[in-house]
Specification:
The chain has 440 residues and is α/β, with parallel strands linked by helices. It has two domains: 46-157 and 316-372, D-Maltodextrin-Binding Protein, domain 2; 158-315 and 385-437, D-Maltodextrin-Binding Protein, domain 2. The chain is built from 19 helices and nine strands. Strands 1, 2, 3, 4, 5, 6, 7, 8 and 9 form a nine-stranded mixed beta sheet that branches. Strand 1 (46-52), helix 2 and strand 2 form a beta-alpha-beta unit. The relative contact order is 0.15.
Length: 440
C-alpha cells in the first residue's frame, strides 16, 4: 500500500514538471551558431549637381570631382554642363522654376550679382578659406560692396596672341614688343603668302572678347585707366578709347579673306592647320590645341603696347562657384566649397585644366608648358579683367553689346573708330551715371 502511494507521488511530480512554464534545474542548451553575415547599413550618399558652361571639361572635371569623392565618400558631385551661349538664360530660368543645380559656375560681376540680388544664391562668408586664401581683388567679382561673398573664386583665364613659331623662324621674325612691330610682322607674313591673323567676325563675340578686350588695356591704361571711365573721369569716346578701336582697324587688313563669314571654329582650324601665323585668343583653348597635335611648334605672346607705353594683359577672373539657396543639401554643398577654396584644390585644377588658373594666394607649380607660357605674360605687366564686365553690363544698352556691334562694324569697314567710341559713349549715357556726368 505504501509503495503504491509513493509511486503515485513520483508520477504526479513528473507530470507537474512537464507542464508549460515549468522546467527542471538543468543546464540550458545554447542555440545553434548562425552562419549568416551581419547586415551593414550603407552610408547614405548625397548627390549634388554642379552646373557649368564648359561641356568641354567633362573628363577633366570628373577626375577633379573624383578626388573630392574619395575624401568624402558620402557626397557625390555630378557635373552637369550647358553650352556656353545658352548657360546664363538657362540657369536663371531653372532657378526661377526651382529646378536649378545645387552648385553652379557663376559669371563674374553683373550677371552673378543679379542672381544674388534676386535671392537665388547663398552667402558664403562662412566657407572656410574664403577670406584667408583669396585676396580681396579676387573675391570682388563675386561679392557685394558690403562684403557679402556669394561665389568662391574658381577659374581665371588669360588673353594673348598664339603664334606659329616655325613660321616666325622661317621669316626671321622675333616676338613683337610694340604695336608698330606687330603690324610690321603681320605685313611681312602677308607678303610671304600666309594669313597673319586667323581671327574673324562670323561669331561677333570673338570681335569683342578675343580682339577688342584683348587689346584695349594697352590703349586705355589697364585697370587704372578703366577705373577712370567707371568714375566719370573720362568719357567713353575719349582719345584712349578711339585708339583702342583704331587697333581693330589696324588689324583688319591682316585677317583671312571673307573673314566676315568665318566662325570661331574656322579661326581655330586656320591656325591649327598652319594657314595662319597668329590668333588672338584665350588660354582656355590650350587643352583643345594640344589634343589636335599640330605639326608645328607654337606658343603665345602678350599683345604689345604702343611705343613707350607700359604693357598690360587681360587676365580675366572668369568663374566662381555658387550655392543655390533652394538646395536641400546646404551642409554637403558647403563641405564641397570648403574643399574647393583650399590651395590643394587650386593646384589640382591648374594641372587638370591647363589654361584655367586658380585664384588662391600662391600659384602652384604648373606642369603644362603652354599654360606656363600664358601665365608668364603677367610678369612685368599690369593685369585687368575684360573691359565691359565690371558695372558696364548693369543697364541697357550694355557696354558688351555696344563694343561687340561696333567692333564688327570697324573690322568690316562699316564704322570709323571715332564713330564706334561715340556710339559707346551715347549708349552708356542713357543709363550709366558716370557716362552722363563725364566731361569731354
Amino acid at each position: 500500500m505504501l509503495r503504491r502511494f509513493v509511486l503515485r507521488l513520483v508520477l504526479i511530480g513528473a507530470s507537474v514538471l512537464a507542464l508549460p512554464g515549468c522546467s527542471a534545474a538543468t543546464t540550458p542548451t545554447p542555440p545553434p551558431t548562425s552562419t549568416q553575415t551581419p547586415v551593414v547599413t550603407p552610408v547614405r550618399e548625397v548627390v549634388l549637381t554642379l552646373g557649368s558652361w564648359r561641356p568641354e571639361d567633362v573628363e577633366q572635371m570628373s577626375r577633379i570631382l573624383a578626388k573630392f569623392h574619395a575624401q568624402y565618400p558620402s557626397i557625390m558631385i555630378k557635373f552637369d554642363p550647358t553650352s556656353a551661349p545658352d548657360y546664363d538664360a538657362a540657369l536663371e530660368a531653372q532657378l526661377k522654376a526651382g529646378t536649378g543645380p545645387d552648385l553652379m559656375y557663376l559669371r563674374s560681376f553683373s550677371i552673378s550679382r543679379n542672381l544674388f540680388n534676386q535671392g537665388f544664391l547663398e552667402s558664403l562668408n562662412t566657407v572656410s578659406g574664403v577670406k584667408d586664401n583669396f585676396q580681396p581683388a579676387m573675391l570682388a567679382p563675386w561679392a557685394t560692396e558690403e562684403g557679402v561673398v556669394y561665389g568662391v573664386p574658381f577659374i581665371a583665364t588669360s588673353h594673348g596672341i598664339y603664334y606659329n613659331q616655325d613660321i616666325f623662324d622661317q621669316l626671321n621674325l622675333k616676338v613683337p614688343q610694340t604695336w608698330a612691330e606687330l603690324l610690321a610682322a603681320a605685313q611681312k607674313i602677308k607678303a610671304a603668302g600666309t594669313i597673319p591673323f586667323a581671327n574673324a567676325t562670323g561669331d561677333g563675340w570673338t570681335a569683342a572678347e578675343l580682339m577688342f578686350m584683348n587689346l584695349a588695356p594697352n590703349f586705355v591704361g589697364g585697370r587704372e585707366g578703366r577705373q577712370h571711365y567707371l568714375n566719370g573721369e573720362r568719357c567713353f569716346n575719349d582719345a584712349h578709347m578711339v585708339a583702342a578701336f583704331q587697333a581693330l582697324k589696324d588689324l583688319a587688313p591682316f585677317l583671312p579673306p571673307n573673314q566676315e563669314q568665318l566662325k570661331y571654329v574656322d579661326s581655330q582650324q586656320l591656325f591649327l592647320q598652319g594657314k595662319a601665323a597668329m590668333l588672338l585668343d584665350g588660354s582656355w583653348d590650350i587643352p583643345f590645341f594640344e589634343a589636335q597635335r599640330p605639326t608645328f611648334r607654337w606658343s603665345v605672346f602678350a599683345p604689345p603696347p604702343p611705343q613707350g607705353q607700359p604693357g598690360y594683359v587681360t587676365f580675366h577672373l572668369d568663374a566662381g562657384l555658387g550655392l543655390n539657396s533652394a538646395s536641400k543639401y546646404q551642409a554637403e554643398a558647403r563641405t564641397f566649397l570648403n574643399w574647393m577654396a583650399e590651395p590643394a584644390a587650386g593646384a589640382l585644377l591648374a594641372n587638370e585644366l591647363p589654361g584655367f588658373f586658380p585664384m588662391q594666394q600662391g600659384l602652384p607649380q604648373l606642369q603644362d608648358e603652354h599654360a606656363t607660357a600664358f601665365l608668364k605674360l603677367n610678369e612685368g605687366r599690369g593685369t585687368d579683367v575684360r573691359f565691359a564686365w565690371e558695372k558696364l553690363r548693369d543697364g541697357s544698352p550694355d557696354a558688351y553689346n555696344l563694343i561687340l556691334d561696333n567692333s564688327v562694324k570697324i573690322i568690316n569697314g562699316q564704322a570709323t573708330p571715332q564713330q564706334a567710341a561715340d556710339a559707346l559713349q551715347a549708349g552708356l549715357a542713357k543709363w550709366f551715371p558716370p557716362a552722363q556726368q563725364c566731361q569731354p
